[in-house]
Amino acid sequence: MIRIAVLPGDGIGPEIVAEALKVLEVLRAEGLAVETTTGLVGGAAVDAHGDPLPDTTLALCQSSQAILFGAIGGPRYDTLPREQRPERGLLRLRKALDLFANLRPAQVFPQLAAASALKPEVVAGLDILIVRELTGDIYFGEPRGIRIEQGQRVGFNTMIYSEAEIRRVAHVGFQAARRRQGRLCSVDKMNVLESTQLWRDVVTEVHAEYPDVALSHMLVDNAAMQLVRNPRQFDVLLTGNIFGDILSDEASMLTGSIGMLPSASLNAAGQGLYEPIHGSAPDIAGRGLANPLAQILSLAMLFRHSVDRPDLAARIERAVEQTLAAGLRTADIALPGEAVVSTVQMGDAVVHALAQGHP
Ligand code: NAD
Questions:
Q1: Are residues 103 and 130 in the same domain?
Q2: 330-350: string of b/e by CB count within 10 Å (b at 16+)?
Q3: Which residue, 26, 124, 163, 337, shows the most beta carbons closer than 10 Å to its own?
Q4: CB-based burial label for 119 (10 Å; 0-12, 13-18, 19+)
């Protein structure tokens, strides 16, 4: 029995998770043994329990093989004390499950090349995987805070990586490259930051175990430039937490829509949290405008990385491609003048394509 915790969250989260669950239902009807349990997280959990990650939700996630996560946050929660903000719930969940490796594919579906902010000839066929370290770096480093020094406020954080943290995510990056085109580009800022000099040294050491993978290194400022200049030069990009946060959002824009991109966050036991890379999109929540494809593709990643059913992952991905090829577009991926479908209609179309593609 596959046990999946379902955490819809806030804003468009519940709308798009509902579409992914419809897709899952098709597979269940075909005989897949899967059990889903829904839990509260983010603002929805703050409203109910005053805590963005209640103990019951954490326990549910700990006892599940995988977590299907929607999105969290919203303007209503922005003025809460930091510990109660929805984002803290997600950060705590990542830390508690030790989800140290974040996988973010940035792929341009041929049908959507014209929707990219870049010229179609620059992005057509783009297929990058960003492997981002997720539980270390300046986001978690201590000491941190805002203090008074000589009568003025001073803000400070600590950028810190241990050798072991770098090594384990480097292994994930090299293994991913091995399953793809065999090229890994590691990103750092070793000319200025000592912690990233160590990053480069350790990645180079780990490379000795992967002689079949071609390793290159790039400074983060250059990587940001190369991603818009010539993104297809990359296969797998390996980054620390903060650099990956920024570069993966940049990469998402290459693909035409933030509403298309899934992600996986994995721990050493293969447990994973699967979520779209976008947020809760409060500006469009509740209006049937959200694109559910990133959420549905997150479900596909779940089958690939936490359940060892790459066949089901491929079927879901194929159903999404067929749906796009049939011309269905939510507003975010439609070109001017193109007909637009709702969140539910897009989900229905994927369900239909998936059911047709029954092996
Ligand atoms: P966002 O990703 O929610 O939205 C950015 C823009 O993209 C908006 O115009 C939105 O309408 C659009 N968009 C996002 N997803 C879409 C989809 N599936 N279909 C169509 N359009 C889509 O980012 P934001 O507006 O900066 O943040 C909104 C809230 O989400 C904030 O509270 C933020 O903290 C939170 N957030 C949560 C996560 C997460 O849950 N992991 C990630 C990022 C931001």
A1: no
A2: bbbbbeeeeeebbbeebbbbb
A3: 26
A4: exposed
- Residue of minimum CA distance from atom 13 in ligand 1: 281
Give me the amino acid identity at 258: I
pLDDT per 10-residue tile (average), the chain, 359 residues: 97 98 97 97 97 98 98 95 92 93 91 82 90 93 97 98 98 93 98 97 98 98 96 97 93 84 93 95 97 97 92 95 95 91 98 85
Which tens digits make up the pLDDT trace of 150-203?
999 999 999 999 999 999 999 999 999 998 999 999 999 999 999 999 999 999
Residue type, 140: F
Mutate to test the pocket of ligand 1, among 280, 341, 344, 345 (most ligand atoms within 8 A of CB): 280
Domain of residue 131, CATH code: 3.40.718.10
Provide the residue range defining the domain that includes 221: 117-255
Note the pTM of the prediction, 2 decimals: 0.90
The single-letter DSSP state of residue 335 is P
Which tokens sit at 292? Answer: 């559910």
CA distance 97 to 166: 18
Give the CA-trace dihedral at 128, 222, 171, 294, to 10 degrees: -30
Residues with CB under 6 A from ligand 1: 12, 16, 71-74, 87, 90, 258-259, 275, 278-284, 290-291, 294, 332
Q: Are residues 241 and 338 in the same domain?
A: no
- Dist CA 306 CA 279 (whole Å): 23
Among 139, 161, 210, 274, which one carries the catalytic annotation? 139
Amino acid letter, 319: A
The tens digit of pLDDT for each residue in 36-77 reads 999 999 999 999 999 999 999 999 999 999 999 999 999 999
From residue 316, alpha-carbon distances to 86, 107, 277 in Å are 30, 15, 18
The three-class DSSP label of residue 30 is coil
Give the end of a domain, one of 237, 255, 273. 255
> Which structure tokens are listed for 355?
């059911």
Instruction: Return the closest-CA partner of residue 285 out of 18, 48, 5, 3.
Output: 18
